[in-house]
Amino acid sequence: MSYEPLLSVHRVLPDGGAGTFSSAEVRSLLEVAFLATCADDVLAEEEIVAFRELAEALARLGAEPRAVSHDTAGLVALQDEFAEALDDEGRPARLAALAKTLTRGVAREAAYKVALAVGMCDFSSSSAEGDFEEELLEALGFDADAADRLAAEVYDAIGGDEEEEEDEGDD
User: pLDDT for 111-149, tens place per residue?
Assistant: First the structure.
């Protein structure tokens, strides 16, 4: 039995094809998603599914589609690498390192959108998640106006999930 997510987190990514993101950006975006799942110390099933879907979508948008494996074993290994780096360096250092990789506007914006969407996918919020989002904003160099604009884009992108469900019920 497969779990169907209530929110399609990958919908916050930009439209595009292969080459939208470099391989380094794809990896960094996945690490941002991982850090978002860790922010509240509770890993919900929705977050696991969202991470997998995000990895699949990013594989299609990456310069090298096979640069990041999105099968179960590959994702577990990647998450283990991210967890080890987080344990060794701490979240502020990881965010600073990710910001150095995410230099293009499209990648920076995608990072913040991914973090917000992953944080929302389990329909719970916490002060720890809010703290993470603030740290990410600072690392990426976004001000409050940019954060509000990007959050509105996230709500618009994933808000379509509810509309699709309502449309399907009309059939």
Answer: 999 999 998 887 767 788 889 999 999 999 999 999 999
Phi/psi region, residue 41 (left: phi>0; alpha: psi -120 to 50; beta: rest), is: left
**Residue 13 has what DSSP assignment?**
S
Q: Half-sphere exposure (CA, 13 Å, Cβ side) for 88?
A: 7
SS3 21: strand
Non-local CB neighbours of 13 within 8 Å, separated by 6+ positions = 54, 57, 58, 61, 110, 113, 114
Output the six-digit token pair for 145. Answer: 């106006």
3-state helix, strand, coil in the chain (%, to 5): 70, 0, 25
99-112 pLDDT, tens digit each: 999 999 999 999 99
> From residue 144, how far is each of 45, 78, 134, 148, 150 by CA, in Å?
31, 32, 10, 6, 10
Higher-confidence position of 109 and 18: 109
Of 170 and 118, the structure prediction assigns the larger pLDDT to 118
- DSSP codes, 25-80: HHHHHHHHHHHHHHTTS---HHHHHHHHHHHHHHHHHBSSTTSS--SHHHHHHHHH
**Model's pTM, two decimal places?**
0.87
